[in-house]
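Crash report, auto-generated. Payload:
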Amino acid sequence: MPITFSNVFYTYNPKTPLENAALNGVDLTIEDGSFTAIVGRTGSGKSTMVQMINALLSPSQGEVVVNEFINAADKKKRTKKLYKVRGQVGLVFQFPEYQLFADTVEKDVAFAPKNFGLKEEEALEEAHKALREVGLDESFDKRSPFELSGGEKRRVAIAGILAFHPNILVVDEPTAGLDPRGAFQMMELFEKVHKAGTTVILVTHDMNIVLRYADRVLVVDNGKIVRSSDPETLFFEDIEKYSLETPLLYSFVKGLSKRGFPLDPGKIHDVDSLAAEIAAKKGDKR
Ligand SMILES: Nc1ncnc2c1ncn2[C@@H]1O[C@H](COP(=O)(O)OP(=O)(O)O)[C@@H](O)[C@H]1O
Ligand SMILES: [Mg+2]
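Recovered output after restart:
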């Protein structure tokens, strides 16, 4: 089932001097199996939105539906035991490294699968598989998560989510602060998880990543969705309307177009497809 938000509002600290309207009528649909990017300036409401998908927050008004779970402002409409949605939605926070807690890496990663009903041994087996997937070898299993580097901690946190095989994976700025190679490896991992059938929802500021990996992009501004599009159309046709950066590849494509060498942006989402499109166009001109 798709994920839907219907007229969702959210206010932090209502009826206090710190009252802050973070979401102001969000409507959206995210299809099963999609790779959806959520973009928009800092403070626009992205993290607030994604925390509703696994019911860490409930709307102040409106409702969010995820599979058979209804997270509505109206408590009577809300699914009982709504927290069970967390068995289907894996949410990796912005800075998940702050949420590690166990005394060894493997115990930290095994926590969720154990919590969702696996025996200790099976949970550890899932933990080891997930750790290998995120690129941490056996030597990490018994180490304390607190003595790892920032990037390693983040991998442990992501392994902790992958270990219980959610059918929806939500990642909030997972590449922020990673070196380019670390960021690339992480994105390749999410792509692999996506290809295995998981719906992936990615909050990011990196438009190159959006163009390369996402099949859908939602632009958030001031607590509302102001655009829902495929990345190619957004970046080629009307990026100026939003304060987003143009992906590097598209700046190049636009530069070529200005010089009388137009390419089909719909076919371009990475360096290889750009090269293929240039070669094909060159062939046409011969
Ligand atoms: N725990 C909180 N308490 C009060 N206000 C918050 C809290 N978290 C976020 N906000 C506010 O809600 C708005 C949306 O924040 P957020 O969803 O974190 O945006 P984004 O993820 O797009 O940067 C901002 O104005 C932010 O300051
Ligand atoms: Mg955020």
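Post-recovery validation: The two ends are 49 Å apart (CA to CA).
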